[in-house]
């Protein structure tokens, strides 16, 4: 085989591979992942496993009741040296009542007039 025929063969192989992956990506869909929903634990696992899970949860809850927090942290100089950089938000005026209406139409509606003719006119009709 000559160098040209090998190059043509490699190009054809590359085009076929690209076409295969494009076909797989566009036309062959994988099974949709199951979306988790709210179900009772006994529906997801056996009744005996649900009871064991509940017992484990109660044991963990009892362990948390024995936790005591040390409030010395709030008396430390490091805590007291913290600075509040809170920014006060100033209320601003709202935008248009209907952002999808044509420009000028909201002005007419605010005056109580009805829009006739062109919607871009800014003078109310009397």
Helix content: 40-55%
Distance between the termini: 89 Å
Main pleated sheet: none
In terms of DSSP E residues, the strand content is: under 5%
User: Over all CA atoms, what is the radius of gyration?
Assistant: 35 Å
Shape: extended
Low-confidence stretches: 115-119
Oligomer: single chain
Structural class from helices and strands? mainly alpha
Task: Tell me how many strands there are.
Answer: 0
What is the H-and-E element order? HHHHH
Explain this structure to me?
The protein is mainly alpha-helical and 126 residues long. It has a domain at 97-126. It is built from five helices and no strands. The longest helix is centred in the N-terminal third of the chain and has 24 residues, at 3-26. The radius of gyration is 35 Å and the shape is extended. It starts with a helix and ends in a 16-residue tail after the last helix.
Quick recap of the structure?
By secondary structure, the chain is an all-alpha fold. It has helices spanning 3-26, 41-44, 47-65, 77-80, 105-110.
Helices and strands, with pairings:
Layout: H1 3-26, H2 41-44, H3 47-65, H4 77-80, H5 105-110
């Amino acid at each position: 085989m000559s160098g040209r025929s090998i190059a043509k063969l490699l190009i054809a192989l590359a085009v076929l591979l690209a076409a295969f992956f494009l076909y797989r990506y566009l036309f062959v869909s994988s099974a949709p992942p199951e979306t988790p929903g709210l179900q009772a634990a006994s529906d997801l696992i056996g009744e005996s496993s649900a009871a064991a899970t509940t017992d484990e949860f109660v044991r963990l809850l009892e362990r948390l009741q024995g936790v005591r927090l040390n409030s010395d942290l709030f008396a430390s100089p490091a805590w007291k040296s913290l600075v509040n950089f809170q920014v006060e938000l100033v209320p601003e005026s709202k935008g248009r009542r209907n952002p999808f209406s044509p420009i000028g139409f909201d002005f007419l509606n605010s005056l109580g007039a009805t829009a006739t003719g062109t919607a871009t006119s800014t003078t109310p009709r009397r």
